[in-house]
Amino acid sequence: MLNIIIIIITFFLITIDYVDSQTELTLPTLPYAYNALEPVLSEYLMRLHHDKHFQMYTNKSNIILKKMFTDTQSDNKLKEIVKQPIEIILTQLEYLPHQYQLSLRYNGGGYFNHKLFFSMLKTPTSTVDENKPIGPLLEAIEKNFGSFDKFKQLFSSASYEFFGSGWIWLYIDAQTKRLILNFTVNQDNPIMYDKNHIILLCIDLWEHAYYPVYENRRNEYIENFWRIINWSFVNQLYIEGQIKRSDL
Fold first, then answer.
1. 88 and 143, same domain (yes or no)
2. Which of these three, 119, 138, 171, is where a domain ends?
3. Are residues 102 and 160 in the same domain?
4. Is 204 annotated as a binding residue?
5. Does residue 205 lie within any of the structural domains?
6. Is 49 annotated as ligand-binding?
7. What 8-state DSSP symbol labels residue 28?
8. Domain that holds residue 114
């Protein structure tokens, strides 16, 4: 009887510790209506992408995080990692037990990437040329790529030529401090390779991001993507990134 009581108390304490301490991801609401991005992205596509795919990455990430936190075979270091925000956890994947690395890389990366992606979109402009960056970000783009048009050409070309499922990124390189264009496969992102990279912009090239509207016309999706970028949001990421860089 005493052993049963001890087991119950131990389970209760573990549960309380988990609720109080473990990072638990929630599905963010969209910062705009589901139909706000039409005709570039339809309401049906947005509900599918956000409510189904993004929710899946959220749910699976939480399952993995819970397993990590309650893993009796691991030391307290793992529990301390799991208490961190997901963007911090993703920079420490190499320190996780092998059985968690791949699944959290995929699902936790999917959560982080989609949270960022949906945040940097807005109601489309009538034409691509009407939507351009502003302020310090525009100056940095012109300095690093020669002109905004040249940057747009390079970003679009990288997206057109990318094969399979993945992402194209613009970020501040942690080492050179320059703006970098690069790609990742699956749900990888730049901070997995250097925690001090500052992500500014990304495009989701998984089929579920465009197929319900564009089917096999991925190039058309990429062309229209320039109409829905929230450059004010991206510019703010750049400004905050510059402040962060000065603190390193």
1. no
2. 119
3. no
4. yes
5. yes
6. yes
7. P
8. 42-119
Do 211 and 157 reside in the same domain of the chain?
Answer: yes
Tens place of pLDDT per residue across the chain (248 aa): 444 444 333 433 433 333 444 578 999 999 999 999 999 999 999 999 999 999 999 999 999 999 999 888 877 888 888 899 999 999 999 999 999 999 999 999 999 999 999 999 999 999 999 999 989 999 999 999 999 999 999 999 999 999 999 999 999 998 888 999 999 999 999 999 999 999 999 999 999 999 999 999 999 999 999 999 999 999 999 999 887 655 54
Question: Which CATH number belongs to the domain containing residue 61 in this structure?
Answer: 1.10.287.990
Does one domain contain both 232 and 160? yes
Cis (ω within 30 of 0) for the bond into 39?
yes
Long-range contacts of 53-59 (CB under 8 A, 24+ apart): 53/110, 53/114, 53/208, 54/27, 54/110, 54/111, 54/114, 54/115, 54/118, 55/27, 56/110, 57/107, 57/108, 57/110, 57/111, 57/114, 57/187, 58/25, 58/26, 58/27, 58/111
For residue 72 the two structure tokens come to: 């009796």
Any domain includes 147: yes
